[in-house]
Amino acid sequence: MPKQRSKKISLFKQWIEPFNADGEVFTSDGTVIYCQLCDRKIPCIKKSQLVQHVETNVHQNGIKRKSNSSKQVFFSEATTSKVNTFNQDLCLSLVAANIPWKKLQNTEFRQFLEKYTNKHIPDESTLRKTYLGPCYQNVISQIRDEVGDSYIWISVDETTDINGRFIANLIIGVLHREKATRSYLISCKELSKTNHSTVTRFVNDSLKILWPTGGNDDKVLLLLSDAAPYMVKSGDVLKVLYPNLIHVTCLAHGLNRVAEKVRDMFPNVNKLVNNIKKIFLKAPSRVEVYREIMQNIPLPPEPVLTRWGTWLEAVVFNASHFEGLKSVITRLDPDSSASIKKCSDIIKIKSVKNDLTFIKCNFEILVKCIKKLEQSKLTLKESLDIVQKCSTQLKNIPGDKGHQICLKMEDVLQKNQGYQMLSGIQKVLSGDEDGHLPINYSPDMASNMKFSPITSVDVERSFSLYKHILSDRRTHMTPEHMEQYIVINCFMRDT
User: Fold this and answer.
1) pTM of this structure
2) Which residues have CB under 8 Å from 276's CB, separation 6+?
3) What is the pLDDT of residues 271-284, one digit of tens each?
4) Based on the number of CB atoms within 10 Å of its own CB, is 170 exposed (0-12), middle (13-18) or buried (19 or more)?
5) What residue ranges define each of the domains in the chain, with the CATH number in brackets?
């Protein structure tokens, strides 16, 4: 051992010996001094630095906890690992439960944790800067282990967050012939702008997170997205990079576009739905009148254009309770609100009642089918049967309006080339002689498509979670930390 190192060990031993009189508090390997109570290294050039640490509140609180603690932290274990296990587990638990790190700054909560864990509770910035990254890497490693070299499907979409940034998410899932599998969010990144080029680059870079060494391009069999032109163009480019890729535009989106066509065909009904929504918004006196007349019937549903089928749900509700709603609107003062006046005028139009009847009778099937497609773990056959049943019922609607909707449905399905290819694969899986496989598909590939999804609901749900995490009360997370946070949260949520 060099003289200098031997001298330093001896010196450190003299410094820490008085503090270890009642039990081992400090340990040293001759290069650093480690405080077992605080779980941290103490950079010491002078003894005064050690004394200064001993006088800190953190160390004094550690002394108080020591009497209740039976666990010894060995120096060799602490210095070989860059992260503290307790802190890492704490970080993982808070992220999994979506508890903001700032809650640790609450004095009562911090004292409670320290009292019953006998551990020093780190600052929120310590968790964010030191422990979030390792937690994220552990989750990515687990996803890699679970996916392995399996065939996969991917789903991509883009949204704008509360800060005005373009955010893209990529969901993946294993294609297995015997069972439906869970999905994984592997990437959530900010895009400079939204076009086919940025989306293509995002997907390609994100798959490198799953397979860093590459060589698995033939394992990506299915891409799900919405039918936006830039997504369709991105799918065409990705087919060149991934030779076995089938691009399917979300069928739930497709049915919702048919529902939007219905809305456009009945403008008076649309006005009625929109104004009924406004009547009871922040108006307790009107709600009281409603409950008096309608009794146990809930308030009319509020349609949200970005949520599939909610407009039709509102129309069906209004049709089912038309007379009751008419009584409520008649009871309200039309001069007190423009929305009441508009509703009062609209319900007097004879065609509105007829239109509500027509929509409820013929188009409620769209709402039911969208809800069924949103379910998880459907087989490919079950999913395609839902779409086919909906298409068949729409074809049977009489009259010119029914014909227009039928044409819209046919247009949606014909433009979805991936849907046509999956239909051919399903016929093969069902033993139908009319079935056909893509030229480059082997029997092994096709058999693993048995549980392939046909909607992008998983990636849509990841955006709902994103907006829940990045609320108006928590807007300062960096894109990098946000990606790590939501990937962990999504993974732990489904385990």
Assistant:
1) 0.81
2) 300, 314, 318, 325, 339, 343
3) 999 999 899 888 89
4) buried
5) 3-67 (no CATH), 141-250+455-492 (3.30.420.10), 254-415 (no CATH)
